[in-house]
Amino acid sequence: YGFNGVDIDLENGLNATYMTQALRSLSAKAGSGLVITMAPQTIDMQSTSNAYFQTALNIKDILTVVNMQYYNSGSMLGCDGKVYSQGSVDFLTALACIQLEGGLSPSQVGLGLPASTRAAGGGYVSPSIVNNALDCLARGTNCGSFKPSRTYPGLRGAMTWSTNWDATAGNAWSSAVGPKVHGLP
């Protein structure tokens, strides 16, 4: 089929040892052009001791991007230890900060969000909030009440669930977020 990568999107846990071995084996066979992405739920990236986060760190040298699902989540702790509710710029930035300060490179961190209110049970935010979160993380501007202690130029960008849902909404998400991603430092 011409596949050039694999996306790890397991929502009922994983074994970091075996997943690391499997991805390293696949990488050895496929070569340096292999794209490896992950789409964990927010709970899976709350701590570097979580198996999902451990796996990301274990394969950091071959990992392309982690697009955490900032939806269908409820409230979560941010990197400052405060509780943030989904659906806000603070939720996006305070949770991305955990990954960025936990060992992932900015180029390995993307924001995964639903393209429309119908695409997920909760967590939809307007494209302007996604853009504000990208600005906050990459430039230190347009933050909410949470502002990271430093900026993360080279942030990978954003992923949406899904292009089909975006199409049903007139491609509003990609039309607004795409130019922002392409203009990131």
Task: Kindly describe this structure.
It is a single chain. About 35% of the residues lie in helices and about 15% in strands. It has a five-stranded parallel sheet. By secondary structure, it is an alpha/beta fold. The chain has helices spanning about 15-30, 50-60, 90-100, 125-140, 165-170, 170-180, and strands at about 5-10, 35-40, 65-70, 75, 85, 110-115, 155-160. It has one domain: TIM Barrel. α4 (about 125-140) packs parallel to α6 (about 170-180). It has six helices and seven strands.
- Strands side by side in the biggest sheet: 1-2-3-6-7
CATH architecture: Alpha-Beta Barrel
Helix share, percent: 25-40%
In DSSP terms (H or I, runs of 4 or more residues), the helix count works out at 6
Structural class: alpha/beta
Average of per-residue pLDDT values: 97
CATH fold name? TIM Barrel
What is the H-and-E element order? EHEHEEEHEHEHH
Q: What portion of the residues fall into strands of 2 or more residues?
A: 15-25%
As residue ranges, the low-confidence spans are none
Q: Which CATH top level class fits? A: Alpha Beta
- Major sheet summary line: 5 strands, parallel
The counted number of beta strands is 7
CA-based gyration radius: 16 Å
Distance between the termini: 34 Å
CATH superfamily: Glycosidases
User: What is the 3D form?
Assistant: globular
Number of domains: 1
